[in-house]
Amino acid sequence: MQERGNGVSGWVGLNMATRGLPDFVEVNPVVGVCFAEYGEISRALMGDVPPGPVPVVSRPLGYLMPENSFRVWRFTQGEDPDLQARSIADAVRVYGETFIDAYGDWGRFSREIESAGLLADHERKKVLPIIFAMNGDTEQALEIVAEEQSRVLGLDDMYARSYRDFAGKFFDRFGSASV
Description:
single chain, 2 domains, alpha+beta
């Protein structure tokens, strides 16, 4: 975590593939941006948010680099791990911090998040209403939640159950929809 001020933090997570143990482990760094207020609200509304910092947006580091592709750093037994660790740190500094700088500004982030292709489909209907509500556009937020709640009404999959729970908490916090 890198505190950036005003409730904004840069975040780096390390996904690890251990299928090569004990010979090697592969690391896929992920860079993200956390907004404290968003984290508090999402934790209250979503039952699946782990404790700790909540990156509202994140990208695997390789996709922020010129190659724009999946990238792993391999740590091999018997080799000096410092070379790979320095390579990750340098890539985070050059490419990750640029991402954090760009989306660590709430105004830019909240204007561009919908069109930037940064949210997976299953995230959009929870993340966007929170962002709209935080920006004072409660009407738009409630409309999104009501439409998605209506869409999943008769479904019984994990997403539908999770969304109905989210919608109930969202309406309790921000009011009812008049859609």
